[in-house]
């Protein structure tokens, strides 16, 4: 069985994204779920009856843990989400917000959080009906979970804050949560202390953003690998660099996979143009090593993110009849994954930008005019496109600086080591958008090279023939921003199809 097939059997990030999609439905708790959840409720009730101190239930929150909690559980829970309702900024996308709640419900359902199945079902029913909090993206250090952002989600369930609402045309807008609940005929949720704490004490916001980022970077890597093969074919470059033997000698699975993706763009019997050098610049020759290393890192990160999604991130937790106070809400696993995703993203964007530079320079493009203009001097061709791509890569590098290196202690002496996981994931998400623009820029470069070199390869359909149609030959200079975006969208769709085909092929080989 392949490594990929094993991950599929154990559920991967793609399965999680499907499970949290708009058409997905959370099943009601089965008998085992109910037994686990009721058992944890009983453990908590027994501890309270025995006058044991339990964080957030008999005691205050955070640095106030030495002070007694309110005698009213609802007042305690309401106060928790109220004082944490300080997140700011534009809300995360509806898809991410829906995934956030799915992840919290998945954690609570495991039966370690002393959440009753009846309360869980109230939240699940609203999720199934499409109720989706609009969660502001900034304001948490991700240490005691993504407290502020998750509190904003909890407040939406309580009829405060905002929720995402989709109109008949499919357009989303953030509306008052009370209005969204009324539209469903649902009353606001009251949050008892334990349920409120179980909801906000989780890594689910940074995790959700990182899962979506991971998916996007996977598609981007696939797209740039295909563009690499396209450029090799157009240039007549030496294809030996993509021979499977190189990957077998080294033993890195990602390198083998990317080389196969590049070879898929080359016709049978493809040979080097004798005018091309024996060894191309590294941006072409070492693409399997660069993109393959990214692919291996993505696979490693997926394992960590899947475990986090399937686990329980809460404090305290109930385990085998005990209440355990600890730090399962600390998001360092997510934070380090997110930081690594950012570094990987930068490598893919940098490689694509360097390949675009190779196409634009006569010394490396086979003697075509600089900037791929048919009218050097009176025309400037792709000069603007290349400069913008360079700017995008620079900005990406700023955005993906490891957030875990920017930690500051807070909350008195309590949260003195924090991961900043959501801050990092938000930066990577912004960088992903720019990286796709670099990919679109390279795709436009490939289209213009094919036209200027007169390389009609007889293709029909997507993506290469369609790419030539959306970015026709430059007989004179024109604004290319829209063509870059259109090429980005085309490559995104194509990469999604390629990844789906790759997944089905590997699953088939494994007999799944």
UniProtKB/TrEMBL annotation:
A single MF term (Gene Ontology): lyase activity
Organism: Nonomuraea indica
Pfam family, one: Lyase_aromatic
Top-level lineage group: Bacteria
UniProt entry keywords in alphabetical sequence: Lyase
InterPro entries: Aromatic_Lyase (IPR001106), Fumarase/histidase_N (IPR024083), L-Aspartase-like (IPR008948)
Stored SUPFAM superfamilies: L-aspartase-like
Name of this protein: Aromatic amino acid lyase
């Amino acid at each position: 069985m392949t490594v990929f097939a094993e991950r599929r059997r154990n559920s991967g990030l793609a399965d999680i994204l499907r499970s949290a999609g708009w058409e997905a439905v959370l099943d009601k708790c089965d008998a085992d779920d109910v037994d686990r959840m009721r058992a944890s409720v009983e453990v908590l009730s027994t501890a309270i009856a025995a006058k044991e101190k339990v964080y957030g239930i008999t005691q205050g929150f955070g640095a106030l843990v030495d002070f007694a909690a309110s005698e009213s559980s609802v007042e305690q829970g309401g106060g928790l989400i109220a004082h944490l309702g300080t997140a700011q900024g534009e809300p995360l996308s509806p898809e991410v917000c829906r995934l956030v709640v799915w992840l919290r419900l998945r954690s609570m359902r495991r039966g370690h959080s002393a959440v009753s199945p009846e309360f869980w079902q109230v939240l699940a029913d609203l999720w199934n009906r499409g109720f989706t909090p609009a969660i502001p993206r900034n304001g948490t250090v991700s240490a005691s979970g993504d407290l502020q952002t998750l509190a904003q989600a909890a407040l939406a369930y309580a009829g405060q804050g905002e929720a995402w609402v989709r109109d008949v045309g499919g357009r989303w807008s953030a509306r008052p949560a009370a209005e969204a609940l009324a539209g469903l005929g649902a009353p606001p949720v009251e949050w008892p202390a334990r349920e409120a704490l179980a909801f906000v004490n989780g890594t689910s916001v940074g995790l959700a953003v990182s899962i979506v980022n991971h998916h996007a970077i996977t598609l981007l890597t696939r797209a740039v690998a295909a563009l690499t093969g396209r450029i090799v074919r157009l240039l007549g470059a030496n294809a030996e660099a993509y021979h499977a033997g190189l990957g077998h000698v080294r033993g890195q699975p990602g390198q083998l996979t990317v080389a196969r993706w590049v070879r898929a763009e080359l016709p049978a019997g493809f040979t080097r143009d004798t005018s091309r050098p024996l060894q191309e610049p590294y941006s072409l020759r070492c693409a399997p090593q660069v993109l393959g290393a990214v692919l291996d890192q993505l696979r490693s990160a997926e394992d960590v993110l899947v475990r986090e999604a399937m686990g329980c991130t809460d404090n305290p937790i109930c385990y085998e009849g005990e209440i355990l106070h600890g730090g399962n809400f600390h998001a360092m696993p997510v934070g380090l994954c997110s930081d690594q995703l950012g570094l990987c993203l930068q490598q893919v964007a940098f490689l694509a930008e360097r390949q675009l530079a190779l196409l634009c320079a006569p010394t490396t493009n086979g003697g075509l005019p600089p900037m791929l203009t048919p009218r050097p001097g009176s025309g400037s061709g792709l000069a603007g496109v290349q400069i913008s791509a360079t700017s995008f890569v620079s900005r990406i590098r700023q955005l993906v600086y490891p957030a875990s290196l920017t930690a500051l202690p807070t909350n008195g002496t309590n949260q003195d080591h924090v991961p900043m996981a959501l801050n990092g994931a938000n930066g990577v998400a912004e960088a992903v958008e720019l990286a796709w623009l670099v990919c679109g820029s390279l795709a436009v470069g490939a289209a213009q090279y094919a036209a200027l070199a007169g390389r009609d390869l007889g293709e029909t359909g997507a993506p290469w023939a369609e790419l030539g149609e959306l970015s026709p030959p430059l007989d004179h200079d024109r604004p290319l921003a829209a063509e870059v975006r259109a090429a980005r969208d085309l490559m995104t769709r194509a990469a999604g199809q390629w990844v789906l085909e790759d997944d089905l092929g590997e699953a088939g080989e494994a007999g799944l």
